[in-house]
Design goal:
Blueprint (H helix, E strand, L loop, with lengths): L4 E3 L2 E4 L4 E3 L7 E3 L14 E5 L2 H9 L5 E4 L4 E4 L2 E7 L7 E7 L2 E6 L20 E4 L13 H16 L12
Parallel strand pairs: 3-4, 4-5, 5-6, 10-11
Antiparallel strand pairs: 1-2, 2-3, 7-8, 8-9, 9-10
This protein binds zinc ion.
Zinc ion (ZN) binds next to loops.
Length: about 170
């Protein structure tokens, strides 16, 4: 059994008749987070996390049809129970949990396993099937630890605020 299919419009749940992060316009798009490679223009109706609403309205248009859910609250769509759970990637990023006849699928866009102190930390959601479309989760990408990134940012701020000169200069040609 599966609740998710890969189609030319994106990841589709046939039981619920909706798409998750579709890359073509569809009637009903469930959005994992508001980054441009996941929340795309043109769908008739969107469902996303509460925090994604103003970002999606700013990017896709104030007049889009959008409903939102907080983390952990369920919504029934054509017999499929849907809920959103923190993905730890950016503010409002969510894993989409689907349950139908006792079978549980989780679809996630990007996610981050390390707590960045800003996003709600990743929640481990038990499931029978897990599908992720995480561009920067590819093994070719290697990331510094969260602490190293924060240290680098602090050092950069310290270096640039200690002088009125810019921390870098453009080459003169
Ligand atoms: Zn993203």
């Amino acid at each position: 059994m599966s609740l998710l299919q890969f189609t030319n419009k994106g990841i589709y749940c046939p039981q619920g008749n909706f798409y998750i992060d579709p890359w073509q316009p569809v009637d009903y798009a469930v959005i994992t987070h508001a980054h441009g490679d996941h929340a795309r223009w043109g769908s008739k109706h969107y469902l996303a996390h509460d925090i994604s609403r103003p970002i999606m309205q700013a990017r896709l248009g104030a007049d889009i049809s959008i409903e939102t859910l907080p983390y952990g609250e369920s919504k029934m769509i054509n017999g499929v129970t849907l809920s959103l759970h923190p993905a730890g990637h950016i503010l409002g990023s969510a894993q989409v949990r689907l349950e139908y006849n006792g079978f549980v699928s989780v679809a996630s866009g990007d996610y981050k396993v390390e707590d960045d102190q800003l996003s709600s930390p990743l929640e481990i959601v038990k499931c029978h099937e897990f599908v992720t479309e995480s561009t920067f989760g590819l093994p070719i990408y290697n990331w510094l630890s969260q602490q190293q990134i924060l240290d680098n940012m602090k050092n950069w701020i310290g270096a640039t605020s200690a002088t009125s000169e810019p921390a870098f200069s453009l080459p003169i040609v």
